[in-house]
Amino acid sequence: MSTSSPNLSSILSSVNDAFSGKTYGIDVQSVVSQLMAIQSAPETQMQQQQADINQQISLLGTISNDLAALYTAANTLRDFDGGLSAKTVTSSRSDVVTATADTSAATGSHTVTVSNLATVSSSYSDVVPSSTQLGGAEIDVAYGDPNNPSSTDKILIPTGDNSLQQVAGYINSSNYGVTANVVTDAQGSRLVLVSKTSGAAGNLTVTSPALNFTQGTAGVDAQLTVDGVPIDSASNTVTTALPGVTLDLASAAPNTPVTIAVAPDTTQASQTINNFVTAYNTVISDINSQFSVDANGQEGPLAGNDGLRSLQSALLGAVSYSVTGTGQYVNLQSLGLEMQDDGTLQVNSNVLNDALDNHYQDFQNFFQSLSPQGFGNFFGNQMMQMTDVTQGPIALAVAGLQQTNQSLTNEINDFEARMNTVQQQLTQQYSALNAALEQYPLLMQQISSQLNSLSSSKSS
Q1: Is the pLDDT reported for residue 177 higher than 80?
Q2: Which residues does residue 224 pair with via DSSP β-bridges, in sequence order?
Q3: Are 91 and 259 in contact (CB under 8 A)?
Q4: How far is the C-alpha of 7 from the C-alpha of 33, rounded, in Å?
Q5: Nearest residue to 141 (alpha-carbon basis) of 92, 236, 47, 211
Q6: How remote is the C-alpha of 218 from its chain's centroid?
Q7: What is the pTM assigned to this prediction?
């Protein structure tokens, strides 16, 4: 009423002014616009409803993204190649050998002794005078045992490649088992060939009618023992001695046993747990914010959303999961992940660190056991249902809001169609009224003139 009354008063005032002769007719467009503003009040309400719905859909989208992040964090808890299965390796002599391990490596200690390192074979020519024409020359390369090579290369230099640089360029552009370069010193330039294969298998024996070659470095295999077992490796990166462990040989130390210790990577495990807690707390906090009351006594836009209530209950129930038969840890609380009054989790570092440092197998079993079902598998399966794009609580809530939004859009479209008709009718009516009002002064003049004429005749 507070909006419509001033408009109606303004319209009546303009009509009265026209009747009284203060104005010449009325402003039809202005009058119709004011009346339509009154008529359009229901549409404004429906548009506000749509704005509220769009805000709710946006907030649900944020929570949906939070859920997706939590789903990812939960999956790392059950991933056998994830942070809870990561291994770390220490070496008692990193100047001799270091190591890395993947998740398949077994925990334990090993003794490694490195007798010698693998080398890459090389061979170099005598100094070659710049005037030497090398085009058409042949270089023969044998690989492995000189007396019983495993393979050979017959390198035929193209006729036009006469300089050492051209020869090296040709070799490097071809598919031979060596790379070539030119070394120049005070005595002159030499052609150097380096094997592409390390160890004894890549040992070079080079002969040529045009050039005299000398072996620079013989190709030999690395020799080491691992837990007393002799190992021969063509490379200083040894991947087959211990399953899941890569040994990187740094130097030979035949009389120095090195201890390699493989252990759970408690740093990665702790980070994985904390990432999960952070992701979980983000979801719970965002949900809680919708149900909390502000200073004005107002709840969040989603306070009345049943789907959000359902999600909150599902998360609180899932995070309270308990299991027996996996060791001494039966729930998150026993591992130091303590639930607060608002449903969020807080990490008790002392309890968690004790589990990581002293009871890692039980800690890992609690999360990754298949039978009975560990927390990681249970929570991951629950998250799969919660994040389902069609049947998850957020998806269903959004679908319901979108359906309501579409219904409002249809109502608004129908309402606007009716308003167009009303506007046309009002325009016609007030145009007719305006025409009458515009004629009113003339009519009054005519009447006044007639009355004056009658008055004069009577007086005469």
Answers
A1: yes
A2: 114, 231
A3: yes
A4: 10
A5: 211
A6: 49
A7: 0.76
Q: In this predicted structure, what is the pLDDT of residue 120?
A: 98
HSE of 124, CA atoms in CB hemisphere, 13 A: 13
Q: Which residue has the higher pLDDT, 17 or 135?
A: 135
Determine the average pLDDT of the residues in 198-209: 97
Beta bridge partners of 345: 339
Tell me the residue length of the chain. 460
CA distances 148 to 144, 214, 219, Å, are 7, 19, 15
- The residues facing 222 across adjacent strands are 233
Question: Is the distance from CB of 32 to CB of 427 less than 8 angstroms?
Answer: yes
Strands 229-233 and 222-226: antiparallel
> Can you point out the beta strands (E) in 157-187?
178-185
- How high is the pLDDT of residue 423? 84
211-237 residues labelled b (16+ CB within 10 A) or e (exposed): bebeeeeebbbbbbbbeeeebebbbbe
pLDDT tens digit sequence for 242-257: 999 999 999 999 999 9
Parallel, antiparallel or unpaired: strands 138-145 and 148-156: antiparallel
Residue 42 has which token pair? 């229901």
Q: What is the pLDDT of residues 428-443, one digit of tens each?
A: 887 887 777 666 666 6
CA distance 6 to 38: 11
